[in-house]
Amino acid sequence: MDMGQLSTFMMRVEMQLSGINQKLERLDAMDIKIKNLETMVGSNDSKLNSLGLQMHENFKSTSDQLRTLQDNIDNNSFNVGIASDKISRLEDELARQRDIVLDLQSRSMRDNLLIVGVGEERRKKKKEDGTDGEEDEEEDTQEVVRNLFKEKLQIAEGIVQSMTFGRVHRVYNFRNRQPRTIVVNFKNHRDRDLVKICANKLKRPRMYINEQYPPEINEQRRQLL
Known about the structure:
CATH topology of the domain at 110-123 and 139-224: Alpha-Beta Plaits
Strand order of the largest sheet: 4-5-1-6
Largest sheet: 4 strands, antiparallel
Shape: rod-shaped
CATH class of the domain at 110-123 and 139-224: Alpha Beta
CATH architecture of the domain at 110-123 and 139-224: 2-Layer Sandwich
CATH superfamily of the domain at 110-123 and 139-224: L1 transposable element, RRM domain
Number of strands: 6
Distance between the termini: 143 Å
Mean pLDDT: 80
Radius of gyration: 55 Å
């Protein structure tokens, strides 16, 4: 082999060696990248494991809180049930007491009659303290009622004079410019019944006589009419 051929051969060998070195360098770079990737994967695995543990702890804590909340709800529901039962019993007792009071009111009014539309006379008299001027004279409501029974109901005077009353008085009337209603309490129930029977002789609607009932009973009667 002459010198020219030897030189050509050596150049080819050097070129092959250079190619091999380049490939080795590439392999070394790839090995470094693989190791870095393995490191990153290991780190991510560690993070994932830590995150998984944290999520598990959070889930356990949340589950415990939900159980506690459910227990509280169950206890509150039980307490609400007890309170509802107590309220229901109290409402029943209140209704019973209301019925008792209503019955007592009705009993206290059963001997009463209401006379509506009887005019009021405003009489004047001298002041009792001796000073100058006049003052309203108090109405004799019993006398007004007796006169009404005799003149309007045409009940015999002897019967009217024999009637005895517990109390006869006027009550406030919310309708303006209307005479105040007279409440008559009869001592004798037969006298009350007689007046009630004769009440149809009055000319409605200006003047009439009704039985007295508590407001609740009046409302019930009004709804039935």
